[in-house]
Amino acid sequence: MFMKTLKRHILIQSSPERVFEVLDDLGVTGMHMTNSSAMMMGSKLHLEYLATNRTGLNSKYRWTGKMVGIKMEFTVAVTKWVKGVEKVWETIGDARMIIYSWYQMRLAISQTDGKTNAELSITYKRPKNLLARLVSWFLADWYCNWCLKKMLNDTKKQLEEQGHGTSSESVARTG
User: Fold this and answer.
1) Cα(110)–Cα(105) distance, rounded to whole angstroms?
2) Residue 174 has what pLDDT?
3) CA distance linking residue 98 with residue 43, whole number of Å
4) Is the pLDDT of residue 91 over 60?
5) Residue 82 above 90 pLDDT?
6) What is the mean pLDDT of residues 83-103?
């Protein structure tokens, strides 16, 4: 079965631990799917936490909603989690999505020249249904790139805006 991987990275002026903490929070990184937007075709999804632990190994989430009138419902589980370094999460069970039949995302954090490099990737499989495969062929990469970019830029924006108000961040930046 066809699988494709897309990657993006960004340098952020913050500690690796803090960058990981923000990217590990679906309230931040999933925000682009919970707000109505053109890329979401005017729709939005609802996020439900299925485990008592919202982060870490074996945490689970369910996304539900409709997009262009089509019901979407899929569950995601964290399958690898190394605090401050790496996180892998993927869809499990029967996933009802439009442009994928399955996906896996990976977050990797490293430090480069005093900044934190955050790399996100998504690997996906196209749907089995012929019409959905055609839609996926046209939209999946475009949507994946938008999603990765939103997740990284929202994290950078949040961290760098928080940093402007604290003197310790200002000292660290000038030193």
Assistant:
1) 17
2) 24
3) 13
4) yes
5) yes
6) 94
30 within a domain of the structure (yes/no): yes
Asked whether residue 102 is assigned to any structural domain, the reply reads yes
Q: What is the CATH number of the domain that holds 81?
A: 3.30.530.20
| Tokens representing residue 98 in the block | 């439009």
* Domain encompassing residue 32: 3-170
Residue 103: name the closest of 130, 131, 67, 79 by CA: 79
More confident residue, 168 or 52: 52
Cα(149)–Cα(154) distance, integer angstroms:
8
Say if 175 falls within a structural domain: no
Written as one letter, the residue type at 49 is Y
Among residues 36, 44, 35, the alpha carbon closest in space to that of 66 is found at: 44
From residue 91, alpha-carbon distances to 17, 67, 124, 129, 142 in Å are 25, 18, 10, 18, 20
How far apart, in whole angstroms, are the C-alpha atoms of residue 128 and residue 131?
9
Total domains in the chain come to 1
Of the ranges 20-34, 45-59, 107-121, the best mean pLDDT one: 107-121
Going from the C-alpha of 157 to that of each of 14, 28, 52, 71, 89, the distances in angstroms are: 11, 11, 28, 32, 23
H or E segment at 31?
helix 31-34
